[in-house]
Amino acid sequence: MEKLRLNVSLLRRKVPNLTSVARSVGLRPATVSNLCTGKISVGRSEVRTLVALAELAECSLDELIIRGESVEMIETGVKTLDLFAPLAKGGTVGLVARPGMGQLVILSELFDRLKKEGYITVLLKPEDEHPEFKDIVDYADIVTDTIDKTYEEIAKLSKTKEILFAADRSHVVSGEIYHLQERLQNIGVDSVTTFLVDLKGEVVDEDLPYGPLETLWQFDADLAARRKFPAVNPIHSTSSVLEGSHLDQTHLRTQQQAQKLLRRYRELRSLVNVRGTNGLPASETETYNRGERLEAYLTQPFYVAEAFTGVTGKSVNLQDTLHDVRKILDGAVDSTDIEKLDYIGKLQ
């Protein structure tokens, strides 16, 4: 079957206030968000939903739906991201987190890692004062104060340069980010991968906090409280890379099976917190143990945190991650102590 996906960049340009507009025409923002990130495939969506989106964007269905094009993945070496919600090259990723969950740490880490791969990193300062934002400045090649200055700096770079650009949600609310993306596209610059963060942590309960996105990284309060970093929720984070591209079926199958295990493990954790492990049904013990080990394996030491943790950063390529997760799913590490899986790179 031909691959179909929404033209998210077109939606972003044409309907920047998509959350409120979608509600006004009877569309659920969560459904629109899941369509944009690929969590709901275009082929499984209702025709009336697609028609309503095309009308909002004042375009035809042929313009709204992209056929046969793949979304390229940027491999980061961060296990949780690459497995569950890959970074879409040239797309927009939204980070949804409350303060203290580690969104700036993961952004700093990605800037640090991908600069070594030849990416140029550009950082737009937030409109308000956020002292914690200073931690990421050292990892940016270019730091700007305004949208116009950002446009000038990116426009000066060769169109062949791959760019990572990060900004706070305050610039999204004002509409400046969408205007910037449109201006860059008009001059043929389409190699900018955009990261949007919410420094105030105000949008954790919103369905469409940044408008249409190719990738959504939803941070998890429980993981953060238990210091299981990166605290990116493996179930609610998603990416159009998984649905829109000709993704390796081993990746897709492993991702889906890992999510299924972790979803059930989280349900069982609620029971264990009340009754202890003795309260687990015998038939669920294996599921709980494997989920616990998979969750531990998905923690990862970062290079940018070495000075604070004393633990050397680790990078794991996607194929090693898939191989390791398959081993965990198949029970090969059932007898391994949890402590030996916490904050490692790949399995030994």
**CATH topology label of the largest domain:** Rossmann fold
Query: Radius of gyration, rounded?
Result: 20 Å
Output the strand order for the largest sheet: 7-6-8-9-5-10-11
Can you tell me the CATH architecture of the largest domain?
A: 3-Layer(aba) Sandwich
Distance between the termini: 39 Å
Total of DSSP H or I helical runs spanning 4+ residues: 17
Profile the largest sheet: 7 strands, mixed
At the fourth level of CATH, the homologous superfamily of the largest domain is P-loop containing nucleotide triphosphate hydrolases
Give the mean pLDDT: 91
Can you tell me the overall shape?
globular
Give the class-level CATH name of the largest domain. Answer: Alpha Beta
What is the count of distinct domains? 3
Given helix and strand content, the structural type is alpha/beta
Main location: membrane
GO molecular function, one term: ATP binding
Family: Belongs to the ATPase alpha/beta chains family.
Domain ATP synthase A/B type C-terminal: 246-319
Question: Explain this structure to me?
Answer:
By secondary structure, the protein is an alpha/beta fold. The chain has 3 domains: 64 residues, Orthogonal Bundle (434 Repressor (Amino-terminal Domain)); 168 residues, P-loop containing nucleotide triphosphate hydrolases (Rossmann fold); 92 residues, Bovine Mitochondrial F1-ATPase, ATP Synthase Beta Chain, Chain D, domain3, CATH 1.10.1140.10. It has 17 helices and 11 strands. The strands form 3 sheets. The chain has a 7-stranded mixed beta sheet with strand order 7-6-8-9-5-10-11, with helices on both faces. It has a two-stranded antiparallel sheet with strand order 1-2. The protein has a two-stranded antiparallel ribbon with strand order 3-4. Strand 6, helix 8 and strand 7 form a beta-alpha-beta unit. Helix 9 runs parallel beside helix 11 and helix 14 crosses helix 15. The chain is globular, with a radius of gyration of 20 Å. The two termini are 39 Å apart. It is found in: Membrane. It comes from Lentibacillus populi.
